[in-house]
Amino acid sequence: MIDRDRIVELHPLGRQTAPVPVERRRHTRSAIARACKVQLSGAVRYEPATTIDVSESGARLYIDSQRPLEPGQRLLLAVAWDAQPTLRAGSAIPARVVRADDAQQADRRSVAVEFETPIALPARIEPRRAA
Length: 131
Description:
This protein is mainly beta. The chain has strands at residues 6-7, 20-21, 35-40, 47-54, 58-63, 74-79, 93-105, 108-115.
């Protein structure tokens, strides 16, 4: 069986070094926690969510939803990049689910999404205001 997530280096005497993880991401992730909302395919309303980390090509989120999520499922993601209380029209990012962990809590899912087209992350992300 080939492990595509690891590289194993062979030595002349048959000894192997420890497996080295292979970085498969195209863009560097930044730990950015921001309020956002997600409209799942086939849904009318948006579900509340929070980003965990974001890159130019995708994000990892916590989505407050009881709906099961499947890899390949399409969605729209709207992120509050700055401290503004509302999101601008047309700011939703088309994406698809890459990985979904439904084993979290009954009403909260950890989801990795890939954007349909890479985005430009804001140069300066304003800190969140204290509640």
